[in-house]
Q: What sequence folds into this?
């Protein structure tokens, strides 16, 4: 899968809008400023995935992209375990940072993922004037690569590369860090490109 | 990104869908629903590892390591080409976890992967020396082909198993 510069640009812009809304919703929830990176879009060979997705323990919240698009692919929020503990503490007003992951952390991870991804998909869908909805979330708190493998197994039966679209969100106080990954299936990609091309065609 | 957490520099890390036969140390990091199939020939100090993603190839042949059926036969074929006899080869099967809670079954393909690999090894007459599959935990595997073969399995919960 090769992206031409127009396609990469269009996707980056789309992601930028989505991620900005996700960052805003996170910022409102935490009542603290959130920084975000410019989204990266790349086609990654499945055999090289381990160079992009690490082995450290993270909370991975996964949503299938549903709605008015073909079986769309997946969207993922990945947060290191320290971030999850901090976010739970922040929401509950507790302070113990040196503890095991518990049920409250799991709920918090899912809830935060839900809020961010709903904002992300809402914003991108609104731009394209279609409906995109997240499926109910699935959660793994485990080696990030192990969780991503299971998602990729659903997508890459017939193809050997995956389009990964990644933005990082950070806050300094509380010190938290998260990434949003969008893994669109080729059919959704095609649909997105067509819509984006239409959008960018000047009115005549 | 530090994928080389076993501190072994010569190691070959096999990504999703890759396979390799040789005498060098090999490993895979972060196995979820995927399976690391290791075939080991003690007599030759030779081994092979495949990082299997799905149970059936359904006619795909470009990446044999990706599917249980093509990976198993490709590993065996290559080892036999390098002088192994079928009866000397034993298998280690690791991985096939179900990573996601609150999920429809579609993300939990680990069980199907495990069943496919077991069935294939049985049909081909390859004995499974060690199996660690299923559960809800990610695993990293490290394997040295020399002599009896050395195997380290490291789990996401921090526990570790060393097999000689």
A:
């Amino acid at each position: 899968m090769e992206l031409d510069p127009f396609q990469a640009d269009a996707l980056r812009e789309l992601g930028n809008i989505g991620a900005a809304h996700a960052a805003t919703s996170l910022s409102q929830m935490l009542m603290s400023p959130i920084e975000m990176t410019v989204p990266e879009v790349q086609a990654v060979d499945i055999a090289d995935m381990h160079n992009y997705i690490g082995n450290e323990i993270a909370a991975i919240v996964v949503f299938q992209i549903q709605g008015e698009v073909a079986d769309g692919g997946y969207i993922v929020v990945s947060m290191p375990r320290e971030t999850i503990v901090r976010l739970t503490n922040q929401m509950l007003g507790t302070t113990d940072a040196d503890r095991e992951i518990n049920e409250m952390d799991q709920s918090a991870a899912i809830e935060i993922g839900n809020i961010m991804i709903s904002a992300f998909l809402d914003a991108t869908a609104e731009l394209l004037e279609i409906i995109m909805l997240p499926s109910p979330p699935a959660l793994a708190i485990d080696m990030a690569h192990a969780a991503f493998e299971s998602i990729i197994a659903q997508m890459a039966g017939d193809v050997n590369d995956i389009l990964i679209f990644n933005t990082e969100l950070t806050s300094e106080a509380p010190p938290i860090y998260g990434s949003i990954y969008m893994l669109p299936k080729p059919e959704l990609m095609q649909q997105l490109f067509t819509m984006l091309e239409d959008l960018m065609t000047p009115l005549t | 990104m530090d994928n080389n957490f076993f501190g072994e520099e010569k190691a070959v890390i096999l990504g999703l869908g890759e396979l390799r036969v040789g005498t060098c140390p090999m490993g895979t990091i972060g196995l979820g629903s995927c399976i690391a199939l290791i075939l080991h020939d003690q007599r030759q100090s030779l081994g092979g590892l495949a990082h299997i993603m799905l149970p059936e190839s359904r006619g795909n042949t470009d990446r044999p390591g990706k599917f249980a059926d093509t990976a198993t036969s490709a590993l065996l074929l290559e080892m036999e080409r390098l002088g192994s006899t079928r009866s000397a080869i034993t298998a280690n099967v690791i991985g096939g976890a179900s990573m996601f809670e609150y999920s429809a079954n579609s993300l939990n393909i680990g069980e199907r992967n495990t069943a496919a690999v077991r069935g294939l090894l049985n049909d081909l007459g390859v004995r499974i020396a060690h199996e660690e599959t299923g559960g809800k935990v990610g695993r990293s595997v490290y394997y040295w082909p020399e002599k009896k073969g050395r195997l380290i399995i490291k789990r996401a919960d921090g526990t570790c198993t060393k097999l000689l």
In short: The CA atoms of residues 139 and 145 of chain B lie 19 Å apart.
